[in-house]
Specification:
Helices cover 0% and strands 58% of the residues. It has 291 residues and is mainly β. It folds into 3 domains: 85 residues, Immunoglobulins (Immunoglobulin-like), CATH 2.60.40; 89 residues, Immunoglobulin-like; 83 residues, Immunoglobulins (Immunoglobulin-like, Sandwich).
């Protein structure tokens, strides 16, 4: 005796479901299953935004209804629906909204910035990624405490209010999300206004002798020094009677009465200027007579 088993005809029906949202990492393989059965076995087709998804390039639509991404690309983002149909009807899974996670990409960067003490400065750094990257900052490899009021971080970078010399250093912005991590570096250089520390030299000179002044100044970058007398700029003369040195020195040979006056030293750099002045007196040559 033999038995003939037959399957009961049945319209397609759902045996499971997929999540409404799926975050897939870019560059990795992934397979979407389609849990629909029926008899006769239904044809299983996938649609993205109303358009049938067919085997092409990195995507394979398998006969068993699975949809394979090898690998996942950003262009795969969208809403997918699997539909099963046979002679007795059709049914569809709930839509699956696929997002593709990709590592942060740097879109804006300030590599090196120079700022004067007391000024406010912005270090520009911005990332693009999905999901939106979380951005942190470090200085000289130590994480910055962005809760301090002098720091303000936003999507475009980091603002530092009233910079000080201690703020100078190498800054790193780090963007991270489920797709990975990216980072970039920029150096902040603090410029200090010049300060004329001192003007040294004899201020009472005999006629015919030489006047020597030395101006000492500090600042970042190192300031350029110039001299003036009674408001008029001094420069080296062709006969070398007056020599203005690059080291902050001034030499006036064979001084005469007209060389008396107010001599000023001015220090200048990109952060500003400073100056000091001294009064130089000229006296007649002292002669001695033998009695």
């Amino acid at each position: 005796m033999s038995f003939h088993l037959t399957a009961e005809d049945r319209a397609p029906y759902i045996t499971g479901d997929l999540p409404a949202e799926a975050l897939l990492p870019e560059g990795h393989p992934h397979i979407l299953g389609c849990p629909i059965l029926g008899w006769p076995l239904p044809d299983l087709l996938w649609y993205k935004s109303g358009v049938e998804v067919v085997t092409q390039g990195h995507i394979t639509a398998h006969p068993n209804g699975s949809l394979e991404f090898a690998p996942v690309l950003r262009s795969d983002q969208g809403v997918y629906i699997c539909v099963g149909s046979n002679a007795f009807g059709s049914t569809a899974l709930h839509p699956v909204n696929i997002s593709v996670a990709f590592p942060p990409e740097l879109t804006l960067l300030t590599e090196n910035v120079a700022a004067s003490e007391g000024s406010s400065i912005r270090l520009k750094c911005s990332f693009y990624g999905d999901p939106k990257p979380t951005v942190t900052w470090s200085k000289d490899e130590e994480k910055l405490d962005l809760s301090l009021q002098r720091y303000h971080a936003d999507d475009d970078g980091l603002r530092i209010a009233s910079v000080e010399m201690r703020d100078q250093g190498m800054y790193t912005c780090i963007g991270s999300n489920e797709g990975g991590v990216a980072q970039s570096h920029g150096r902040l250089i603090i410029q200090a206004r010049p300060e004329v520390v001192n003007i040294t030299g004899d201020l009472l000179i005999e006629k015919g002798n030489s006047l020597r002044l030395l101006c000492t100044a500090e600042g970042i970058p190192l300031p350029l020094i110039s001299f003036h007398k009674d408001g008029e700029a001094l420069a080296s003369t062709p006969d070398r009677r007056v020599e203005v040195g690059s080291d902050g020195s001034l030499l006036v040979r064979f001084v005469a009465e007209e060389d008396r006056g107010v001599y000023g030293c001015k220090a200048r750099n990109v952060a500003g200027t400073d100056e000091k002045s001294v009064q130089v007196m000229i006296q007649g040559r002292i002669c001695s007579f033998a009695g």
